[in-house]
Fold this sequence. Notes:
Elements (H helix, E strand, L loop, with lengths): L4 E4 L5 H9 L3 E4 L7 H4 L4 E4 L7 H5 L6 E4 L9 H6 L3 E3 L6 H16 L2 H11 L19 E5 L3 H14 L2 E5 L4 H8 L3 E2 L2 H7 L2 E4 L13 H5 L6 E4 L8 H9 L5 E4 L19 E3 L8 H19 L10 H5 L6
Parallel strand pairs: 1-2, 1-3, 3-4, 4-5, 6-7, 6-9, 7-8, 9-10, 10-11, 11-12
Bound molecules: glyoxylic acid (GLV).
Amino acid sequence: xTAFRVGITKPIHPAATKLLQDAxxxxxxxxxxxxxxxxxxxxxxxxxxxxxxxxDALLSQGxxxxxxxxxxxxxxxxxxxxxxxxxxxxxNTPGVLTEATADLAIALMLAVARRIPxxxxxxxxxxxxxxxxxxxSMGLDVTKQTLGVVGMGQIGLAVAQRAIGGFGxxxxxxxxxxxxxxxxxxxxxxxxxxxTLLAESDFISLHVPLTDxxxxxxxxAALRAMKPEAxxxxxxxxxxxxxxxxxxxxxxxxxxxxGLDVYEREPAVTTGLLDLRERVVITPHIGSATSATxxxxxxxxxxxxxxxxxxxxxxxxxxxxxxxGKDVLR
Length: 330
Ligand code: GLV
């Protein structure tokens, strides 16, 4: 019997690759820059990343393909409907990156509010501490302010818990109806409409997946509806924000600042965003980038592969119902 073959588009944690090899699976690791199309026709399972575009044309070449194991919570890079039509299971890695991503959302909120990158750059350039009661780079309070969570799933809840427990914030949310939203209400979060959230929040953190319904959810009108000092945080998907409209809103001072980890056209970042430094902090999609989390994500993807190789159900499949009702990021 020929071994079950697994194509890995870009390196995953070595412990996870070893798990596949120890189980006797044939592992085909793509070389850097090698097109996925080279692999897909020769494997039963593909371990993919959020930077891989897994569309119908690619899937059509996967004559033996049974599984796409995406090493990410989000799966907007995979054409789920096309995979389902072709009988290919798609899995993601929910849960294991919740805490790391929530930590980064809070880190961005604090970094923007207290202008940490700007202050760091200032000290390095001035080389001495020029203490003044009224510095140019005055910060914003976080404690006891209002946080609006857009998309109350597991990650939104983890952010809300930090905001309430750590900073005594009032938390409003919109979107989300599952167990995470129920827990959020138990800890005092209040569900409001998106217009109310935009109008009342000092900080707004996005935790919705990218779907047709959330594409440009934060557009020019939404930005205008925010408080002039509001800070927008995005650790979800870039295209949830109209990035050009955000650049203009920041330039015109329509909102107070932004902390961004994701971008509308990754790997590109809208021209203009890179030049905005005052109360704008940008990181290169590192929400889950802690060593423990990236290891767990790799392991979860590989456990899905092992299950399918063993003719068992995948552990975290994206079912039609889950894909249709995905209004929160898990
Ligand atoms: C990261 O953005 C992920 O979806 O895992």
